[in-house]
Amino acid sequence: MNYQKKLENKTRCLICPRECLISNGQKGFCHVRENLNGEIVLTTYGYNTGLSLDPIEKKPLYHFCPNTSILSFGTIGCNMGCLFCQNYQTTKNKSDPKSFYKASPEEIIGAAKKYNIKSIAFTYNEPVIFFEYARDCAKLAKEEGIKTVLVSAGYINEAPRKELFQYIDAMNIDLKGFSEEFYNKNCGAKLAPVLDTIKYVKSETNCHLELTTMIIEGKNNSYDTLKAETDWILNNLGADIPLHFSAFFPRYKYANMAQTSFEALLKARNTALEGGLNYVYTGNLSNIETSSTFCKKCKKPLIVRGGYNIIEYNLADNKCKFCEEEIYGEY
């Protein structure tokens, strides 16, 4: 399906809620979707910033195929305007895409099969903006029995969302904060479409779901904000959806701000746990206890993590070895 609408001398891109109205020869907000003679074209199709082999825990996914490797790649550009972007060298890059690594969907899936890698990830920049490339890779991966992972901010319109997500096995959605004011001032975007995407994944797909919120002290970590986020997750998704609180490091327009303290991450984690969520983690600042998975019933350690490494594993067939409580995820 072609997600665009021609309007006299311009064409509207319908991939994401920005719905950029683009003149011939110009590009949208993301810098990679261009109007060429009235048609919106993805200029980065087949071009990416290189293939990397990552631990799946790095996505972060803690409840999906733990202790496995995943073939990861992304392109350039983004449809979010985050002032705190941690990957701005990629997301804000306006270089000629043809200067980057070229790999067709067939070549990417071929590499995964050659090295016996069981999953691929669309990550590093926003996969929504390279929709056609991600869709074609994901569709081919499904045909070849390779799992697909999408790491996204969830800023996508309903129709392309439905088409792409049918080929996705697991997602980590970056819930950047929990107020329209935060999204408007710090991301140049809206919160509501992100929440709609998250609810869609949970209720309308079979996709494994985890969430990440990067804590920026003084911006999105007040008790009321964290409590509201926790309550929303509990009421709309359930207590078992894993939530990761990651640390902010001074980058891009927020280069002069302080790095997130571990105390702030711990406070956020405690707020979510006390609010009723079962699986809450901290990331980017290593700590064994707050990055390990505990049984929600007997509270014994199920997966003990040191960084991205698993140092103790007490699951059997998705169940706790100690009390046989079923644990959310795919193992």
CATH topology of the largest domain: TIM Barrel
How many H/I helical runs? 8
The chain-level structural class is alpha/beta
* Annotation, overall tally of beta strands: 20
Helix content: 25-40%
The gyration radius over C-alpha positions equals 20 Å
Under the CATH scheme, which architecture of the largest domain would be assigned? Alpha-Beta Barrel
| Biggest sheet statistics | 8 strands, mixed
Shape: globular
Please tell me the total number of domains.
2
* Strand-residue proportion: 15-25%
Spatial strand order of the main sheet = 7-8-10-11-12-13-14-15
What is the C-level CATH assignment of the largest domain?
Alpha Beta
Q: Give the ordered list of helices and strands.
A: EEEEEEEEHEHEHEHEHHEHEHEEEEEE
CATH superfamily of the largest domain: Aldolase class I
Please mark out the parts with pLDDT under 50 across 5 or more consecutive residues, or reply none.
none
Question: Could you describe the 3D structure shown?
Answer:
This protein is an alpha/beta fold and 331 residues long. It has two domains: 1-43, no CATH class; 44-291, TIM Barrel, CATH 3.20.20.70. It has eight helices and 20 strands. The chain has helices at residues 88-91, 105-114, 131-143, 158-165, 180-187, 192-204, 223-236, 262-274, and strands at residues 4-7, 10-13, 21-23, 33-36, 39-42, 47-48, 52-55, 69-73, 101-102, 119-122, 147-152, 170-174, 208-215, 243-247, 280-283, 293-294, 301-306, 309-313, 315-316, 319-320. Strand 14, helix 8 and strand 15 (280-283) form a beta-alpha-beta unit. Helix 3 (131-143) packs parallel to helix 4 (158-165). It starts with a strand and ends in an 11-residue tail after the last strand. The model has no long low-confidence stretch (mean pLDDT 97).
